[in-house]
């Protein structure tokens, strides 16, 4: 999308998502302690976003309802353009280790962990929601950040979630 804006005696052009075709994201890295999601391509940080996490974010997710975001290596395996939040991309939690740990504790590992935008209808106050950890264990970004992540990240991209 291009938007040309006349400004006094000159004009300039704003291009939405510049150079998307030239940027290939081969890893998504999340640093929970820094509340940061990075898109990595060829070993370089291409984009960086502030995030909100689950209401009890410290530590690895152990069971359904613990409000923790998992830690470890996963894959972004499918997406939902019509989710209850502004777009969502699914994280492949639980993996076999997560399932085995939950079974040993006799609990449900949980699931449906996503990277997503703000709840539908509340995108206008996303900047405020990003100041607190409010999800049930997902990774939340603003709607505009989600649009960019959606455009840059393909299904099958690995995601590393670190403390």
From TrEMBL:
Record pathway: Cell wall biogenesis; peptidoglycan biosynthesis
GO BP, sorted A to Z: cell wall organization; peptidoglycan biosynthetic process; regulation of cell shape
Domain L,D-TPase catalytic: 26-162
Keywords recorded for this protein, A-Z: Cell shape, Cell wall biogenesis/degradation, Peptidoglycan synthesis, Signal, Transferase
Signal peptide stretch: 1-21
Classification via InterPro entries: LD_TPept_cat_dom, Transpep_catalytic_dom
Gene Ontology terms, MF aspect: carboxypeptidase activity; transferase activity
UniProt cross-references to CDD domains, sorted A to Z: YkuD_like (cd16913)
Active-site residues annotated for this sequence: 116, 138
Family of the protein in this entry: Belongs to the YkuD family.
Protein name in UniProt: L,D-transpeptidase-like protein
